Amino acid sequence: MPTIKFLPHERETQADDGETLIRAALEAGVHVNASCGGEGVCGKCRVIVESGSVEGGISEKLSREDRKKGYRLACRSRVSGDLVVRIPIESEIDASVLNLQSLPRRTARIQQMNLEELKEQGLFNPPVEKKYLELPQPTAQENLADATRLVSYLKLKHGEHRLVVDLPVIRKLPQVFRQEAFKITAILARPVQEGRKTRIINVQAGDTTNRNFAIAVDVGTTTIYGELVNLIDGSAVAQYGEFNGQISYGEDVISRMMFAEKPGGLERLQEVVVESINKVIRKLLRRSRIDVDEINNITLAGNTTMTQLLLKVPSEFLRRSPYVPASTLYPPVKAAELGLELSDHVDALVYPAVSSYVGGDVVAGVMGSGMYRTDELTLFMDIGTNAEIVIGNKDWLACAACSAGPAFEGGGITFGMRAAKGAIEDFSIDPFTNEPMILTIGNVRPKGICGSGLITMVANMFEMGVINHNGKFNRDLDTARIRETDGVVEYVLAFREETQIDRDLVLTEIDIENLIRAKGAIYSGCMTLLSEVGMAIDDLQRIILAGGFGSYVDLEKAMTIGLLPEIDPERVTFVGNGSLMGAKMSALTNRIRKDVVEVTRMMTNFELSETASFMDNYVAALFLPHTEMQHFPKLKARLETRRAALQ
Amino acid sequence: MPTIKFLPHERETQADDGETLIRAALEAGVHVNASCGGEGVCGKCRVIVESGSVEGGISEKLSREDRKKGYRLACRSRVSGDLVVRIPIESEIDASVLNLQSLPRRTARIQQMNLEELKEQGLFNPPVEKKYLELPQPTAQENLADATRLVSYLKLKHGEHRLVVDLPVIRKLPQVFRQEAFKITAILARPVQEGRKTRIINVQAGDTTNRNFAIAVDVGTTTIYGELVNLIDGSAVAQYGEFNGQISYGEDVISRMMFAEKPGGLERLQEVVVESINKVIRKLLRRSRIDVDEINNITLAGNTTMTQLLLKVPSEFLRRSPYVPASTLYPPVKAAELGLELSDHVDALVYPAVSSYVGGDVVAGVMGSGMYRTDELTLFMDIGTNAEIVIGNKDWLACAACSAGPAFEGGGITFGMRAAKGAIEDFSIDPFTNEPMILTIGNVRPKGICGSGLITMVANMFEMGVINHNGKFNRDLDTARIRETDGVVEYVLAFREETQIDRDLVLTEIDIENLIRAKGAIYSGCMTLLSEVGMAIDDLQRIILAGGFGSYVDLEKAMTIGLLPEIDPERVTFVGNGSLMGAKMSALTNRIRKDVVEVTRMMTNFELSETASFMDNYVAALFLPHTEMQHFPKLKARLETRRAALQ
Q1: pLDDT tens for residues B301-327?
Q2: Do the beta carbons of residue A357 and residue A323 sit within 8 Å?
Q3: Residue B488 dihedral angles phi and psi, to the nearest 5°
């Protein structure tokens, strides 16, 4: 990878060939003014290529003279080989002050399911296994019932005990046995609880032991993700995502539950989500060229609402205080009974929930991330409209849902939007000029701010003194970007002509307040859980992030605003779709299925609104980063350095 | 009850007021000539009432003089008070010879299910129980899931552990809980196997613990019997029988199985039998004024073919050598899934079978009769078209199906018929005149011979020397009733004008041969089972008869022809419909359900045709009573007395 050196900062970074210079600067924590998101229209991101050469970067925004001097637009220049790039400094500052600028962007290390580790720990024991048998044929002297023959020889040849034969299998046994002269493959479903019986759920003529598959599904409120896995080696065969068709009946869980209360509503929503899952199943089968009869198992995880709707359980009291789910544990159910287009012999395992707002998706995340098997005190966070947090380790687990509101998905923010093209996802600010550096998804002119962008933005502004501890803009700064409109103080990220939205794109103090409330709810949730079990935030050893949000958020920035507790970023990992990961693990290994029940029981749920200490913790968290600065030593040091440098 | 003394025999008997004199004579073992079945048309049953008086008995068949002398027709005379009755003797014989006549008629003592005994032995533990709970209502501080609340309080208030809540229950919990302010009744289905979980199969608002019912069904090839039982006190509430609608598709199991092999045949037969069972269920509910929702359990027993057809299991290989059933054990299945008109929460327990021809009906009989709990070496027999026999006690059980053929149901006998009006059911013969005494069901002119009548007839003729050891008529007798027609020797039971059938009603040597083959198959079956386990026929301590046949058969006569081993008739009992009795016991007590599985495993099946000793035993049994007379000491003594008296 080419190395790029930025002057006068003397900061080096590496970037892929073809990467834009402006993004390389951002990754290096080097500020370059930029308002148009990287589209090349504002002409502000002028840099001088002092050594090496870039592709592109020439623009009418640059005069002929500038071009001769080596000026390029950083957002249009693509790396090709090592470079030395100088950022033109417009005021007299020294290099030490330059280094007060943003820390390099840093996202969480991705943590994937480690099949080998599972195998080593003896945790890879598929819930459904196949056994091949060449049975002796019945004679006048030995005319055992077909089912008895099957059970006896599974015992004799494979040491299988405590077997029970399902009725549909009994119905097909006579035919299947005689199809290939009593050479057959039996499909065994293992009991989750020890001491219970192994069920023979299917039989096939001949030897089919080399084909054995399962499906794992995350039933999300918005999207349904499925993964088809091979039960023989544990490998992933195909993945597919599809919108949850229930979206037509309401965007969020509350509106879905309201629809479910209408006559026929519950049945309709159940049919719709099943059809969406069936679409995923069909796609997975087509992609992997696997026949539906080869799927022997399906595991599904979703939040409590999604789970109840999928199982056609009325959700009337789930959405009303005191928020009582019908159940948290669900017995296994036939997939076909739910309407899933799978063979009759397939059981659907549905992940258990802890409470109305800590659902099976979170439990699956806890299972998938392995936090329930670790000694380390771990914080698991799944941040979406609601944030669910789980704290603990192999000995205890405490969990809560935090009413974070939709700020992290762009909701409640004046120009908030989902992480889509045109959303500001990266930001830095020049501490002298207070000019912004704005990069958008897709490098187009900005039209809004996504959740991770908002965090980066507020963190940067706070660290550079543009925003104070209370989340208010510093009124003393000499910049036109900070202004008051209709009684609300705001910072102009991009002026009208630099945007796609035909008006100034701003960040207001109300937006910041909303963000602070959201992050305060989550952080105080963590503090409350910890204090309830007699521990403190500094005891945390590890953070696991789940959900789409976790893959983009800049860890140091999230710590700067006090969303995440300040720990070594190396100790923060991202598990992606934790729900799908957990579902997949349960599809692959029976031990996990057994553990799920125990883990769910172990997860002590706290209703934060009913926990005495929560309100105090919450109020204390309504500052940047927090009233108790001692928990943020690194940030404190940086702020002190900055203050000293600027004085 | 009035006492009737018969002269010159000096025999006394008791009879109900209104009973006919001829039947009283028969019960006393006193022969009176009679050919017309008791209709009063042959005029042969002349008797003299010497003391007391009868109602009726005057007929044009009696001359005025005879009437004056006190002559009456025995078949038309009804007992009313004590009587002394003289039978006119037409030849010179002494009283000792008169006493050579038949032993009094004696049927098996009826053995009913003894609920009190079950309760004393701790065997009355219904598989489904109800528990009433007044639950605390959820609050903001304590908002357990409804299912968790239910499970927790069942544990707290009723000491219930290891509970699992069925999905349909989860679906209705929220509504039912809030219907009567969290006062609810939970319906618990106990596990059959210890250590497994108790399932919560239903919940109802309020206290419904005083209503808890189950249904037991005998799925017979011809008739379906149902009984509705109260699970609270074990009492029988209603009984009802209905033809099995499958009869339209074939009379016997073989023709049913043949139909089942046609396209759609199996499905059709399943629907038809389910509809017949539904008729029984509907009738039971109407009769007992019980709502279908109050039925919490159904247990069904039937032969292997009936069971496979009910469960929609193909029977193709069941009817073909080597006669392999698909299964002998069946997992519990939802009643509604079979099409039974019961609530969704009701499980159907189907009795396990031992082999193709020793089915769940026999296992149920073994359970119902309690033979598996006794120390005594017991013979259980269910005689129909096939005879199934089980020998053993609490330590071991051996069983076999005997191809007895339909002789006991009147099949293969020239004038054989089912036990219906006009069937000869009682018989004796005058050892001097060789004239018969014939009584029919309904006291009408005879039209045929039913199974129990045939046995009585042949036994009597054999004991009186009319038939010899080989089943041949004694050609030396001076009677017109024994004659040869078309090369076959026969005995005329009733001449044309005394019958309903416009021809002579006869018993032929071929009929006798068929009866001997049938009884020989059964007796040799018993001998074979006993010899295979190293025991002998004389070791038998008890006989249990099941099936309609068992209630009518004259025990001493059945021993005389060698159908039953000769034991004290006091030690023979009749359990009636053993299949229904067993089904009922399983419906009432969970312990029996558990025992069923072990008993079925314990029942060693012998395919007689494949058992080396069987053919020898069979050939030895093709005599009256048997080649080995030493096993029939009482009969032997009687025959010797007769021989001495007649010489």
Answers
A1: 999 999 999 999 999 999 999 999 999
A2: yes
A3: -110, 130
How many inter-chain contacts (A to B, CB under 8 Å) are there? Answer: 134
pLDDT tens across B38-83, in order?
A: 898 888 899 999 999 999 999 888 888 988 888 999 999 999 999 9
Per-domain residue ranges for chain B? 1-99, 127-205, 213-357
**Residue B483 DSSP symbol:** E
pLDDT class of B647 with cuts at 50, 70, 90: low
β-strands B397-402, B423-429: how paired?
unpaired
Q: How far apart are CA A70 and CA A209, in angstroms?
A: 67
- Return the beta strands (E) in A323-365 as ranges: 333-334, 347-350
* CA–CA distance, B242 with B278 (Å, rounded to integer): 10
Closest by CA to A124, choosing from A644, A647, A585, is: A585
* Distance of alpha carbon B61 from alpha carbon B57, whole angstroms: 10
How many CA atoms lie within 13 Å of B271's alpha carbon, on the beta-carbon side?
Answer: 5
Nearest residue on chain B to A310, alpha-carbon basis: B171
Look up tokens 């309609």; give the residue.
B548
Phi then psi dihedrals of residue A461, to 5 deg:
-60, -40
CA–CA separation, B169 and A208 (whole Å): 38
CATH fold, domain A1-99, is Ubiquitin-like (UB roll) (3.10.20)
- Closest-CA distance, B329 to chain A, in angstroms, reads 8
pLDDT value of position B92: 52
Cα A426 from Cα A454, distance rounded (Å): 8
Q: Which of A151, A312, A317 to mutate to test the interface with B (most CBs of B within 10 A)?
A: A317
Domain formed by A213-357, architecture: 2-Layer Sandwich (3.30)
Whether the CB-CB separation of A478 and A433 falls below 8 Å is answered with no
Task: From A299, A271, A276, A284, select the one nearest A360 (Cα to Cα).
Answer: A299
- What pTM value is reported for the model? 0.88
B200 interfacial to chain A (CB closer than 8 Å):
no
B170 closest CB neighbour out of A165, A174, A313: A313
